[in-house]
Amino acid sequence: MGSSITQILNSNPNLPNDSKLLDGWVADVAQMSPAQLQALSNTTLNSSTKTPIDAATLLTDLQGTYTIVKTFGTPNGSGDGYFGVELKTTDANGNPVYILVDRQFRLTTGSAGDIATDIENVAADEIGIDPPGLDGAKSAVETVAQDALSNGGTLIPIGQSEGGMFAQLQQAYLQSGGSALGTALPPSMSLTINAVPSDAVINRMSGVTPSEVNGLNISATDDMFTGPHSISQNTTGTQLYVSQNNDGTFQASTTSSGSFFVIAHGVGGKVLRRDSGYESKAGWFSRRAFA
User: Fold this and answer.
1) Residues of the chain with pLDDT under 50
2) Which CATH number does the domain 5-216 belong to among 2.60.40, 1.20.1050, 3.40.1350, 3.40.50?
3) Which of 72, 286, 33 is nearest to 166 (CA)?
């Protein structure tokens, strides 16, 4: 693998804060037609980019600049529930970085059929059965990993909630040696927010355990679905817990505190400062904004 999560994050200081904006943007992109998706290739995302669904909204808080490479899977309304977008950027040292943004759970952005498909994927994952969208997720990460390997770059699958589940599974799949690339892999890590736990499925992969997955999962301390006090705690890779202080500021820690009995999930967008609004539009319980 070549690099620790600390090394990769130090070289990509904008990405933790940008990742939630990118998650929300992909949730919007998934509502576009196949023809519209094809037209996105080789366009640029930056702080002046208009969002695809609400053209009046700009990604004003986006700190990095990203080029859209390709999309994977099917948009809303069809398919097995997997959809991802490959982005390319450069790190602080000028080296290429390939990011695979996996679409989040479509509670507010999909049809009843879309939501049922997402529930099927999450339910399968929770009981240790391969989610229907896993094959598509594996195929996507193999392609992006090959792009990174061919160009001397780093690979970072990212996602929130269900998208985080797929990102962790993609990273575990690569580390297991089961992909077409075998052990010839680029430096990589998963970067997820409130990811649906994928431990049971990862435990079925030979060659890797959840604790060995090279990744960082950021979760709200009182997330009742995937937080440290929930009945379905994420333990894949390294965990960072974010809580809100009484004065409205935020703090992050690798140890957990707080209570399980809070309705909050999918709102852990920005790591260091309060959510700006757009990035949580496609998330769950979006007004409960954690850092």
Assistant:
1) 1, 56, 248, 257-291
2) 3.40.50
3) 72
